């Protein structure tokens, strides 16, 4: 069975709560804003921390250092002893528990245990007391995948010890969203003997140097009328920056962003979020109405940015400040410097303005991104995009038994696998009932792939 790609209208429809908050991202990192939900105990199935001794460098024959890596387990639905184990991959943010989302529904249906490992360096799983550039050299997707493999083996063995068995294997299935969705697909690719299958929701498996399709998708998702107003605002802002820099930044509550590129990125991301999370009306309705009424468009946009992007969505302006990104202190709640390191070394996703018809400012270009990488991390730091795609295959990923799901309005979809394998079906959706069909198809594949490796825990590949 090859890879299956299911398309859906809005990513947030598929994974309910889990995806309704996955990123803000200066780089539009697919980052989960878990802190938005941490006050709500219903958001988590469990927040009880467990710890695992992880190898620091999986590729060194002589460096045997270890660090403490945090993980969670939820066993309420687990059909002991032979139920499947769902490995939920935590991405590029602090992992504060196992969230109570659609995966919980699946776990109940399949009688599965759910385990979740925090990504190295993020949250409480940092190997070092300082995040200097030198100390970040073990932060990569390759090391993270090895972490998951070693943890999976250790967890299986610990289960076997509890039931006094040797060599027993439960059926494992991996899940991830966005960057962790890419990790989910890559895990199945690199360690096919350790999992029966993978779900990669918005899995950004293609590293992209100049990611102009991101901005193009924003324009398409906005529609002609709203796009035109956004472009007019960009033009007005660019002009105002030359004559009225300080006042303009104050108007957006972003006076701290001294570098113009940082400020313009903040404004671009504020628009993106409306489409990525299915809230286009929150942005487009007031802007289009303001245009028709001849109102001050920059003022109306500033209100949206402060009320919705910063207020409702909870984004911090300092996330965009390169001085903040230079801070090497280990801070459990801040993952900005860490994700930028991965961007500047492995995957890029530089959201540059297309050469024409751009929604974002043309000042957000390749030079801005490379200057940021150099300014924040020092000389010689730039993304090895070709190497990343050679290693994983990009959208030509040659893995099997992977379900890819993508939101049609999500600008990240262009870095995911969107073309179905020849032996799979694509499902387009335009309504919630179609999303249910997609879910049903997803359940059928999980069921099939689990049954195909039942008793061995290993796929027939």
From TrEMBL:
| Any GO molecular function | serine-type exopeptidase activity
Taxonomy, superkingdom:
Eukaryota
Q: Which GO terms describe its biological process?
A: proteolysis
Pfam families from the xrefs? Answer: Peptidase_S28
**Record's compositionally biased regions (Polar residues):** 417-428
Is the keyword Protease in the record? Answer: yes
Please report the name of this protein according to its UniProt entry: Serine protease EDA2
